Amino acid sequence: MSNPKPRTGPLSTEEKKYIAENCSFVPSSELAEKMGRTLQIVQNYIQQAQLRSYDDEPQDRDRVRVRKVLEKKYWFPLIKKQLLRNQEIDELEIFINRWIDYYLQYKEDVVASEETQLNEIILLNIQLERIRQAEVETRQKIKTLEFKIEDEYYKDEALRDLQNLQRWESQLNIAKTTLQSHASQIKSINDNLQKLYDAMKSTRDKRFTKVESGKNTFASIIRRLQEDEYRLAKSREAELIRMATDKKREVLEDYHQYEDGSIDVPILNHQSAQKIIADENQAEER
């Protein structure tokens, strides 16, 4: 008997829920087979819902997970309103991917103040790209106008279109002024970016220096364990503690006579219990 043909059409709410609950640890092909759906339908929904898929590479899984972290931030809807989205460019996707890159680069250890700096850095870079694109367009406009003006001046004076010539020269002056404005804006944004980079580096350096400078912090202990003398001393200390613990445990697992004359085992565990049972069996045999 042949297998039934996979069903097409929209996924039901139950099917979507089933995919969301299982796609991270079950291959998409297996999900599709169990649901009686085509593999393409299952994969399309996983991508559309931005779910973490078993089929993804580990790095891709991290990106999907961090994207969800970003989209849950209370300030993310405000960011979306500031960015352009059209057929030529999707600034929101640029922001999201750069934020994920930074977040993973920093090992997902980013505090609130650093998040604000990070957002500002990405937004300023996007603004910088807008201005640079406008600068390219302005340069192209200048070349076009210069060509038109030069071509017009090659004509006999009586044949020149003075009205167009005057209009083009006016547009050329405006374009050159605009080009200078672009250069000024680019310099200003680069200066602000450098300040933000320095501020963020300083913030992170101070935070980690404070963590690492403490004598009893985890980071300081790990750092000191890299020193041979300190590591050997701590190893010896740990072994002495273990030996002392074992010796004391042996005493407490044996019979002890209290001040009232009663005899009992202070610590009852599987070892002391086995000793008591063995002693009782020996006593019965006698």
Number of H/I helices:
11
Gross morphology is elongated
Major sheet strand order: 1-2
Q: Mind summarizing the main beta sheet? A: 2 strands, antiparallel
β-strand amount:
under 5%
**Could you say which structural class the secondary elements and strand pairing correspond to?**
mainly alpha
Number of strands: 2
Radius of gyration over all CA atoms, rounded: 36 Å
Average predicted local confidence, pLDDT:
84
Order of helices and strands: HHHHHHHHHHEEH
- Poorly predicted runs of 5 or more residues: none
End-to-end CA span: 75 Å
Q: Any idea how many domains?
A: 3
Helix content: over 70%
Provide a short characterization of the protein structure.
The chain is mostly helical.
Can you walk me through this structure?
- The chain is an all-alpha fold.
- The protein contains 11 helices and 2 strands; from the N terminus they run H-H-H-H-H-H-H-H-H-H-E-E-H.
- Strand 1 and strand 2 form a beta hairpin.
- The model has no long low-confidence stretch (mean pLDDT 84).
Secondary-structure map:
Blueprint: H1 13-22, H2 28-35, H3 39-48, H4 58-71, H5 76-81, H6 91-105, H7 112-153, H8 162-213, H9 218-224, H10 228-252, E1 256-257, E2 263-264, H11 270-285
Antiparallel strand pairs: 1-2
Which features characterize this protein?
single chain; 286 residues; mainly alpha; two-stranded antiparallel ribbon; 2 strands; 72% helix; 1% strand
